[in-house]
From TrEMBL:
This protein's name: Alpha-1,4 glucan phosphorylase
Role played: Allosteric enzyme that catalyzes the rate-limiting step in glycogen catabolism, the phosphorolytic cleavage of glycogen to produce glucose-1-phosphate, and plays a central role in maintaining cellular and organismal glucose homeostasis. Phosphorylase is an important allosteric enzyme in carbohydrate metabolism. Enzymes from different sources differ in their regulatory mechanisms and in their natural substrates. However, all known phosphorylases share catalytic and structural properties.
EC class name: transferase
InterPro entries: Glycg_phsphrylas, Glyco_trans_35, Pyridoxal_P_attach_site
Length: 838
């Protein structure tokens, strides 16, 4: 008997089944009873009960994909910033209210239980979160898709603030059980490292290469189900974990060196130990290089294994498989596929190259030079010698093509080469990714233009048809429906729930934006969400904030290009104005910062200290009172983000024009009814186009103006001399006003601005930023107008659903169509077309 069988009281029956499943997991899966079960046990039992529901649909989905034999897409990413899964799964399976009722009836506090979930923080920031939003959209759109990544034992570090400074703690998220994953012992691929290449001539006179004497590491699969929204589809995120290979151990065991054998075993298993915590910057470490190859190799073998279950002719691969590279991090998959085709499958070069190029597509995520991956040739010589040969061959044929198209242009050959010929020769991974793909995309319109006309200009001249734009998006299931239930309900009452799968439906809000009752309820929801965040701030920071103040939020990784420091200059400017005119009429503000700095990024860490130092002075100044508070929320993460966006009034998106590829935080804020103050950068530009120029606060230099100013010779000191308010702020920072015990502490920050060129042009944008902030304050006094614009922001967010982004990838790059999954009620038990494990 199952829950779909006809019965006279289906609701009651359903509740009983949920309770039964929950109690059985407490007893049989966890081995507890009602006396010994902790709240954490309750979470796990609940998660297992939900997982059971997922698994039914998961098997159906994979069977449907196998039967249809449609083209599939593999999204390879070194990061998946998933966050928590319980509520998201309940929502997507449309069983949240049933489960809430069942669990509450057992005497549990539902919210307390889901707060027990560890978050899967296998990413740094936007790039990893994008991958997670894409998985949700692909499942919701019934696209046969797989996310491939690494099962890091330690995700992004947990941030603590101690005496104002960032401290990093390990995120040992797998120490307790992870109820969402299933280990797949049978999906074990050997990944080779080191060794040498044997070149011989076979009996047909063909040169063949063999990679021998390698040290092998096993990649073991762990699968996590990714449910679509109310559509019976459940896709797979497959993460690889490194396990030592048995042969490898045996060598040492046979020599009688037990300790050495175990040591080696431990060493090889370090490959999947920890996520590198730097965002938008490469670390260049050998272990990271190995991680990238580990992911690339295991995934390529898995893709081919699945392909071969139905096909024998490898030339069909591009018709059945699309591989999307999330930045260059997994780009070693290109030479890896070439190696497998050439050396293991005996495909000749031209066919192998055709197959490879048609299969791969590359997404660029940044133009910051420090983030463009270049691996030393000697890494390859030692660790991936066969891949180096293949890359050299790819480069040779490629440069021949360039020379044919642009005869005599040697400078161009040097610029475009995959190999950078400096004193230390390096492989430029972006060049390899462009040459080895049929599609290269940026992640916002401006960014894609910069790729075509600046960063990859030479490549665009040669292969214009390869370049395209796919503006990023976010999933509204998590970033509105789940994280902001009050607003979701209000919206639903007025325009229905169509927006959950078609975000353009939000346009219907325009018609009610000035309806007094709707606006009043909108304000009440925002107030409620602000009260919740205020309670969080009181609990974690011991700061009482004014919920009638503007919640002015900048939450994202701490990076110079994102210009948290420019925000701080405004904070101090406002503080000085209050001090100069204590009786003045100021619109109160709560400045909320949150974000992690890479542990080795000295300037970013100093900026965190500065924010906290300014907070200490401002928050404890009785003359300021509740007109101004500065809050740094520790440990920015998906879960914390879910608290912040619904409560924000103002979204700070203030990167130097031309530096932020897209941004997705900007979209989450606007979706939740915040107004944006931002530069004409990344997706801000498209947000402006969608919500209307009059409903967003734009300031600062444009990308062209930034470039022109730099070319003319930018002198930040001009602004320092000209602007007394700015001068005062910088003098305070440099002179120890905010660090009385250590007067020189923040001098390096001012030094960067005044003496080291102010690369991100904070001083050039200061005046227009402050003026724009004054406009913000002025508007906030008019709550009706503010609310109207907030509603229009939400109403204009249709374009920024990751569903739209994925539809474009599927249509333009992958050539993939949906495979719909029948409901479980029509599932064929004992289906004879079973195909073994997927
Ligand atoms: C959305 C998101 C980001 C990206 O934010 P940006 O403002 O686009 O840099 C980073 N971290 C988390 C946890 C997010 O949810």
């Amino acid at each position: 008997m199952n829950e779909y069988d006809a019965n006279p009281a289906p609701e009651l029956d359903n509740l009983i089944l949920i309770i039964k499943s929950f109690l059985e997991h407490i007893e049989y899966t966890l081995g507890k009873d009602k006396y010994t079960a902790t709240r954490y046990d309750a979470f796990n039992a609940l998660a297992y009960a939900v997982r059971d529901k997922l698994v039914e649909r998961w098997l159906d989905t994979q069977q449907a994909y196998y039967n249809s034999d449609n083209k599939r897409v593999y999204y390879i990413s070194m990061e998946f910033l998933i966050g928590r899964s319980l509520i998201n799964s309940l929502i997507n399976l449309d069983i949240l209210e049933d489960f809430r009722e069942a669990i509450t009836s057992l005497g549990y506090d539902f919210e307390e239980i889901f707060d027990e979930e560890q978050e899967a923080g296998l990413g740094n920031g936007g790039l990893g979160r994008l991958a997670a939003c894409f998985l949700d959209s692909m499942a919701t759109m019934s696209i046969p898709a797989y996310g491939y990544g690494i099962r890091y034992e330690y995700g992004i570090f947990r941030q603590k603030i101690v005496d104002g400074a960032q401290m990093e703690l390990p995120d040992n998220w797998l120490r307790y059980r992870n109820p969402w994953e299933l280990d797949r012992q049978e999906h074990l691929h050997p990944v080779k490292f080191y060794g040498r290449v044997l070149t011989t001539t076979n009996k047909f006179g063909k040169t063949v290469s063999e990679w021998v004497d390698t040290e092998d590491v096993m990649a073991m699969a762990y699968d996590t189900p990714i449910p679509g929204y109310k559509n019976n589809s459940v896709n797979t995120m497959r993460l690889w974990s490194a396990k030592s290979s048995r042969d490898f151990d045996l060598k040492f065991f046979n020599e009688g060196n037990y300790i050495r054998a175990v040591e080696k075993k431990m060493q090889t298993e370090t490959i999947s130990k920890v996520l590198y915590p730097a965002d938008n910057v490469i670390e260049g470490k050998e272990l990271r290089f190995k991680q990238e190859y580990f992911l690339a190799s295991a995934t390529i073998h898995d893709v081919l294994y699945r392909f071969k279950k139905k096909h024998t002719d490898l030339r069909l691969l591009p018709d059945k498989v699309a591989i999307q590279l999330n930045d260059t991090h997994p780009a070693l998959a290109i030479p890896e596929l070439m190696r497998v085709l050439l050396d293991l499958e005996n495909v000749d070069w031209d066919d192998a190259w055709q197959i490879t190029r048609k299969t791969f597509a590359y997404t660029n995520h940044t133009i910051l030079p420090e983030a463009l991956e270049q691996w030393p040739v000697w890494f390859f010589e030692q660790i991936l010698p066969r891949h180096l040969q293949i890359i050299f061959d790819i480069n040779k044929y490629f440069l021949e093509e360039v020379a044919k198209q642009f005869p005599g242009d040697n400078a161009r050959l040097a610029r475009m080469s995959i190999v950078e010929e400096h004193w230390e020769r390096k492989i430029r991974m972006a060049h390899l990714a462009i040459v080895g793909s049929h599609s290269v995309n940026g992640v916002a319109a401006l960014h894609s233009e910069i790729l075509k006309h600046q960063l990859f200009r030479d490549f665009y001249e040669m292969y214009p048809e390869r370049f395209n734009n796919k503006t990023n998006g976010i999933t509204q299931r998590r970033w509105l429906k789940m994280s902001n239930p009050s607003l979701s309900e209000l919206i639903g009452e007025y325009i229905g729930d169509g927006w959950v799968t078609d975000l353009y439906e939000l346009e219907k809000l325009r018609a009610v934006a000035t309806e007094p009752e709707f606006a009043a309820r909108w304000q009440a929801v925002k107030k409620l969400n602000k009260e919740k965040l205020a309670a969080y701030i009181l609990k974690h920071n011991c700061i009482q904030v004014n919920v009638d103040s503007i919640f002015d939020c900048q939450v994202k990784r701490i990076h110079e290009y994102k210009r948290q420091l420019l925000n701080v200059l405004h904070v101090i400017t406002m503080y000085n104005r209050i001090k100069e005119n204590p009786a003045g009429d100021f619109v109160p503000r709560t400045f909320i910062f949150s974000g992690k700095a890479a542990p080795a990024y000295v300037t970013a860490k100093l900026i965190i200290r500065l924010i906290n130092a300014v907070a200490t002075i401002v928050n404890n100044d009785p003359e300021v009172g509740d007109r101004m508070k500065v809050v740094f929320l520790a440990n920015y993460s998906v879960s914390l983000a879910e608290h912040i966006f619904p409560a924000a009034d103002l979204s700070e998106q203030i990167s130097t024009a031309g530096t932020e590829a897209s941004g997705t935080g900007n979209m989450k804020f606007a979706l939740n009814g915040s107004l944006t103050i931002g530069t004409l950068d990344g997706a801000n530009i498209e947000i402006m186009e969608e919500v209307g120029r009059e409903n967003i606060f734009i300031f600062g230099l444009t990308t062209d103006e930034v470039n022109n100013t730099r070319n003319k010779g930018y002198n930040p000191r001009d602004y320092y001399s000209k602007l007394p308010a700015l001068r005062r702020v910088l003098d305070q920072i440099a002179g120890g006003f905010f660090s009385p015990g250590a007067p020189d502490l923040f001098r390096p920050i001012v030094d960067l601005l005044l003496n080291q060129g102010d690369y991100y042009m904070l001083l050039a944008d200061y005046t227009s930023y402050i003026a724009c902030q004054d406009e913000v304050s002025k508007l906030y006094r008019d709550q009706n107008e503010w609310t109207r614009r907030a509603i229009l922001n939400t109403a204009g967010m249709g374009k920024f659903s990751s569903d739209r982004t994925i539809a474009e990838y599927a249509r333009d790059i992958w050539g993939i169509s949906p495979v719909c999954v029948k409901g479980a009620e029509s599932r064929q038990h004992g289906d004879s077309s079973a195909h073994g494990s997927f």
